[in-house]
Specification:
Distance between the termini: 13 Å
Number of domains: 2
Order of helices and strands: HHHHHEEEEHHHHHEEEE
Strand order of the largest sheet: 1-2-3-4
Largest sheet: 4 strands, antiparallel
Structural class: alpha+beta
Strand content: 5-15%
Shape: globular
Number of helices: 10
Number of strands: 8
């Protein structure tokens, strides 16, 4: 979609700059490994798009089962070692294979990589009231509780703007995006999206420097609304 080109430039300048610097530093440090990996898997369509392929089987399986490029973007690095995990960076997320063999998205926002509250101000801090209500994966009735929590924490209308935070979250993936799914419903796509980005941990905030943008912090990402573009995206 046309709005993709403005993705991280719509975040507060310090946040976007730090994320870009983090990604570029890691990729540059591991550049020799990256290029050798690409040459080994040139038949991967992703390699023709960004120059990097899905060389790690566990990461490739997770990528395809969680919406592929539609949800994560294309790879922008080769698999690498980072704090004991195998990690591959994508245009909109990072996938990690942890020491215990489990696979998931790297916790860039709520982890130690990108302390948003320190960089962008207290408005980007997690909200204690939301954290206290945040459903825990695997708990009884999690799917229903997570869906209700999203409805209460991710408004579609806020401060006179049609931000569509909740609607964008729910419509991000289609069943056709999920490779290998034996059956698929709206609950399936919701579950996959929550695996990728988690649930809201902050309240909507307006950009302090522009009336055009509003943000909503999630466990593993930040959703951005542009009034001018009439668009909401990660």
């Amino acid at each position: 979609m046309p709005g993709r080109a403005v993705r991280w430039s719509r975040l507060p300048a310090k946040v976007g700059a730090l994320l870009s610097a983090f990604l570029l530093t890691v990729v540059a440090f591991l550049a020799p490994q990256a290029y050798s990996t690409v040459s080994q898997a040139a038949e991967d369509p992703s390699a023709a798009t960004t120059g990097y392929s899905l060389a790690d089987p566990a990461i490739a399986t997770y990528f395809r089962q969680h919406g592929g490029a539609a949800a994560l973007g294309n790879p922008i690095s080769a698999p690498m070692r980072l704090l004991g995990s195998r990690v591959q960076l994508f245009q909109r997320q990072a996938i990690e294979v942890r020491p215990d063999g489990s696979v998931g998205t790297l916790n860039l926002v709520d982890g130690d990589f990108l302390p948003l509250a320190t960089i962008a101000g207290p408005g980007m801090a997690p909200d204690p009231g939301l954290l206290a209500r945040l459903p825990k994966p695997g708990s009884p009735g999690y799917a229903q509780r997570a869906s209700a929590y999203l409805d209460s924490a991710a408004p579609n209308d806020w401060n006179g703007m049609r931000v569509r935070f909740g609607a964008t979250y729910r419509s991000m993936l289609k069943c056709s995006d999920l490779a290998g799914a034996a059956s698929c419903t709206g609950a399936t796509t919701f579950s996959v999206t929550s695996d990728l980005y988690g649930l809201p941990t902050g309240k909507p905030i307006a950009d302090p420097h522009s009336q055009d943008y509003a943000y909503l912090r999630f466990q593993r990402g930040v959703m951005v609304y542009s009034r001018t573009a009439s668009d909401t995206q990660w």
